[in-house]
């Protein structure tokens, strides 16, 4: 079963939620939940099951995907939380909506996205 991690900016999240098939499992950063709730409450998107997880993302996206925060302490903390989540929830073929720095994400999490 496919599981898609949504860890990027707000616009990317809104597009991905609409584009992904209903059969795909979505795991999103908790920082995206207020946007999701607002879009659903205003009828902009249909409600669907999304697991929102606190990966420690405080800005608009996972620090690994940014240039400014790329090697900060928070980046490694976020990657550690993703690694813990993946290990605690095995059995999926995992994807992220970002291909840049994918090899680094794989390396730091010890998982293949």
Helix count equals: 4
The coarse silhouette is globular
- Kindly report how far apart the N and C termini lie: 13 Å
Count of individual domains: 1
Helix fraction by DSSP (H/I, runs of at least 4): 25-40%
In terms of DSSP E residues, the strand content is 15-25%
Instruction: Give the second-level CATH assignment, the architecture.
Output: 3-Layer(aba) Sandwich
What's the gyration radius in Å?
A: 14 Å
Q: What is the name of the CATH class?
A: Alpha Beta
Low-confidence regions: none
Largest beta sheet: what is the strand line-up? 3-2-1-4
Characterize the largest beta sheet: strand count, sense, and whether it forms a barrel: 4 strands, parallel
Count of individual beta strands: 4
| Averaged pLDDT | 94
Protein structure class: alpha/beta
**Can you write the helix and strand succession as a string?**
EHEHEHEH
CATH topological fold name: Rossmann fold
Write the layout of secondary structure elements.
Layout lengths: L1 E5 L3 H10 L5 E5 L3 H9 L9 E3 L19 H16 L4 E4 L5 H8 L4
Parallel strand pairs: 1-2, 1-4, 2-3
